[in-house]
């Protein structure tokens, strides 16, 4: 029986094949355009990310040369330290200024540490403790974790006065100058909210395992500790003070952190590993 259907002619088959090929080309061209667009978008995002990183580093570094002189925070002194007279108060100082050019030069040969303006408290007065610390120092973080609460208790009892000289030795290994930014933040808190200093300091060192912080994070941590110092942190208000402290420490032959002095004598952790007992003995001896 003959079929009613009729096979397409050669011309019709050729036209159909051309139409299909054209559809394939159009689809491929559309896919290529989408791929090209995605690549361009990806490149743009990558470029913007790099720009954001660079801008962030500039901001975090508080770009620009640090001034050679500047104000000292409340509780600060001419040696570059901040002195706590209790767990909520700092020394009564105001109106002081420092000049980095007057900090002195580091010795060319190794010498015994000789911190300026550090001496034993007279009999009957609170024992003097002096700490050289760097907020980016793992050993400082360990020391603070172990002894921060004890130091706070001694301060609350009136048994000691504590001076922190926060240096920035480890800026050399930080892409954001975290040591000096952290030291500036501590100075900001001392100046604006002395009662929050110990709380903020403890939180700052406890954060060490999590890595460096942005200025906004430092400001939030300070706020959580009771100090609203975001502008001071962003402005780098006490960077000249930090720079002076750092240079003075080098000039006084402080080779590393933490370095601790009890009544004007350097504590040797190898010879006397129990820091708390050594301080307790000094307290009893000075009664």
Explain what the structure shows.
- Pfam families: Thioredoxin_4 (PF13462).
- The structure is a single chain.
- It contains eight helices and seven strands, in the order αββββαβαααααββα.
- The protein has 287 residues and is of the alpha+beta class.
- Helix 3 (178-192) runs antiparallel to helix 4, helix 3 runs parallel beside helix 5 and helix 3 (178-192) crosses helix 7.
- The chain is elongated.
- The model is unreliable at 1-5 and 43-63 (pLDDT under 50).
Largest sheet, in brief, is: 5 strands, mixed
What is the spatial order of strands in the main beta sheet? 2-5-4-6-7
First-to-last CA distance: 127 Å
The radius of gyration computed from the alpha-carbon positions, rounded to a whole number of angstroms, is 31 Å
CATH class label of the largest domain: Alpha Beta
Derived from helix and strand composition plus strand pairing, the structural class reads alpha+beta
Instruction: Fill in the CATH topology of the largest domain.
Output: Glutaredoxin
- The percentage of residues in β strands lies in 5-15%
Number of strand elements: 7
Stretches with pLDDT under 50, minimum 5 residues: 1-5, 43-63
Keywords: Membrane, Transmembrane, Transmembrane helix
Region (Disordered): 1-20, 102-121
Biased composition (Basic and acidic residues): 109-121
Pfam family, one: Thioredoxin_4
């Amino acid at each position: 029986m003959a079929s009613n259907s009729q096979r397409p002619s050669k011309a019709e088959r050729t036209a159909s094949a051309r139409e299909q090929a054209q559809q394939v080309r159009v689809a491929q061209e559309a896919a290529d355009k989408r791929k090209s667009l995605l690549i361009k978008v990806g490149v743009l995002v990558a470029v913007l990310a790099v720009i954001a990183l660079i801008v962030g580093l500039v901001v975090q570094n508080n770009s620009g040369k640090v001034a050679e002189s500047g104000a000292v925070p409340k509780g600060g002194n001419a040696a570059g330290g901040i002195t706590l007279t209790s767990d909520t108060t700092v020394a009564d100082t105001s109106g002081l200024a420092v000049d980095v050019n007057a900090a002195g030069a580091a010795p060319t040969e190794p010498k015994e540490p000789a911190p300026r303006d550090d001496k034993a408290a007279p009999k009957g007065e609170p024992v003097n403790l002096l700490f050289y610390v760097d907020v980016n120092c793992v050993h400082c973080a360990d020391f603070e974790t172990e002894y921060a609460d004890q130091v706070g208790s001694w301060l609350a009892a009136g048994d000691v006065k504590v001076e922190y000289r926060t240096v920035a030795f480890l800026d050399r290994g930080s892409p954001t100058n975290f040591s000096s930014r952290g030291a500036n933040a501590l100075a900001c808190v001392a100046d604006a909210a002395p009662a929050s200093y110990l709380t903020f300091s403890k939180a700052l060192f406890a954060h060490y395992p999590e890595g460096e912080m942005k200025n906004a994070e430092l400001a939030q941590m300070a706020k959580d500790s009771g100090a609203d110092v975001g502008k001071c942190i962003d402005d780098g208000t006490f960077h000249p003070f930090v720079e002076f402290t750092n240079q003075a420490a080098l000039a006084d032959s402080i080779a590393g952190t933490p370095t601790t002095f009890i009544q004007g004598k350097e504590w040797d952790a190898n010879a006397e590993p129990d820091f708390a007992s050594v301080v307790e003995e000094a307290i009893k001896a000075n009664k």
